[in-house]
UniProtKB/TrEMBL annotation:
Membrane spanning stretches: none
Cross-referenced InterPro entries: TRIAD_supradom, Ubiquitin-like_dom, Ubiquitin-like_domsf
Matches recorded under PROSITE patterns: TRIAD (PS51873), UBIQUITIN_2 (PS50053)
Residue span(s) of domain Ubiquitin-like: 28-90
Residue ranges annotated for the RING-type domain, each copy included: 104-333
Organism: Lingula anatina (Brachiopod)
Entry protein name: Probable E3 ubiquitin-protein ligase ARI8
Functional pathway: Protein modification; protein ubiquitination
Gene3D superfamilies listed in its UniProt record: 1.20.120.1750, Phosphatidylinositol 3-kinase Catalytic Subunit, Chain A, domain 1
Any GO molecular function: transferase activity
Any one biological process term the GO annotation gives: positive regulation of metabolic process
Keyword Amino-acid biosynthesis: no
Keywords: Metal-binding, Phosphoprotein, Repeat, Transferase, Ubl conjugation pathway, Zinc, Zinc-finger
Length: 345
């Protein structure tokens, strides 16, 4: 039982025979390939290589879809066969099909759209698939933006850290980096009390005047501080707690305060059916504007010249296509603005 000479891994030449066949030519191509897999265990799977003899590929089936025999290709004892290994596309991380079988899929990558059938991807809890390298890079990118959550780009479902750690195959360095970024993003909503240096956060996000019970007890007096500038709240500071302690009030703060606290008015010449805030910020440039309660619901900004609806805050060209100048807006009354618009080109 002489066998054939196979040039395989790392150029190694090994003589291989097929048990039960004194004449190697009568063995099937499949049987020979199975013997080859056994010579290099755990190096590759059966379907990850093919054989070449005299420039011809040895296929498992012949043209009649029958099991191909080596002698059909002219192979005999002493022949030299070249093994060609199929390499998958570049992928720094690769799933273990046994260890990670519970979430492996060949579905297209939700981030890149890659649907290479030779690459395994991880199925996330939301049902979408992603490559481990892409999941690592995407998570890092999202956290670098300062976000507290990493969400699926398709359905916006949250991907938790433990799931990302498992399915992105994070090494210790990558895991440490993501943990640090995640923690830093979380503490962006916290500050240090200027009195005791404790890490604190506000229970009431609309209140810039914060009371520290620990400092009050330590100092023997009421201790409040300004969340914006971290100075102790002055004894004769502003009574309002929404625009700062007096040291840090600026024009933008006052504008937001006015938008949030102005009274409401009726537009008697319009069929609105409800009141609207007296003050609005121009949706184009942010200039504060008031309506004189006369004529139609649209006004022109004195700063940028843009005309907009005082009710729904859409530009007049859009609002009046959906309804009349005096009619109720299809979008309804816009809520009080909490952000000052910036000038648009």
């Amino acid at each position: 039982m002489e066998g054939v000479l196979v040039i395989g891994m790392a150029g190694e030449r090994i003589k291989i025979s097929v048990p039960g066949y004194s004449d190697i030519g009568k063995a099937s191509v499949k049987a020979l390939k199975q013997e080859i897999v056994g010579q290099w265990p755990k190096s590759f799977e059966y379907d990850q290589f093919y054989l070449l003899f005299a420039g011809v590929t040895l296929t498992d089936k012949n043209s009649y879809n029958e099991e191909a025999i080596l002698q059909d290709y002219g192979v005999k004892d002493g022949s030299t066969i070249l093994m060609v290994i199929r390499l998958n596309g570049g992928q720094a991380k690769r799933y273990d099909q046994k260890l990670h079988s519970s979430f492996l899929t060949k579905e297209a990558d939700v981030i890149t759209g890659d649907d290479d059938p030779d690459s395994w991807r991880g199925k996330m809890s939301c049902g979408h698939a992603v490559d481990p390298d892409m999941l690592t890079g995407y998570s890092k990118h999202e956290l670098e933006k300062g976000r507290l959550d990493v969400k699926c780009p398709e359905c916006k479902a949250k991907w938790g850290f433990t799931e990302i750690r498992e399915k992105a195959l994070l090494d210790q360095e990558e895991q440490r980096a993501l943990e640090v970024m995640w923690s830093k993003n979380a503490i962006k909503t916290t500050k240090k009390c200027p009195g005791c240096q404790s890490i604190v956060e506000r229970a009431d996000l609309s209140n810039l005047r914060v009371h520290c019970g620990y400092c009050t007890k330590s100092f023997g007096r009421c201790y409040d501080f300004c969340w914006r500038c971290l100075r102790e709240w002055p004894k004769f500071g502003p009574t309002t707690n929404k625009v700062g302690c007096g040291y840090c009030i600026n024009e933008k703060d006052l504008s937001l305060f006015l938008l949030a606290n102005c009274d409401e008015i009726d537009l008697p010449d319009c069929k609105i059916g409800q009141k609207v805030p007296r003050v609005r910020a121009c949706p184009n440039c942010g200039q504060l504007c008031e309506h004189n309660t006369e004529a139609c619901k649209n006004i022109m900004c004195v700063a940028c010249g843009k005309e907009f609806c005082f009710v729904c805050l859409m530009f007049t060209s859009i609002c009046c296509k959906e309804g009349g100048w005096h009619e109720k807006c299809s979008r309804g009354v816009a809520p009080r603005q909490t952000v000052i618009p910036t000038l648009k080109s």
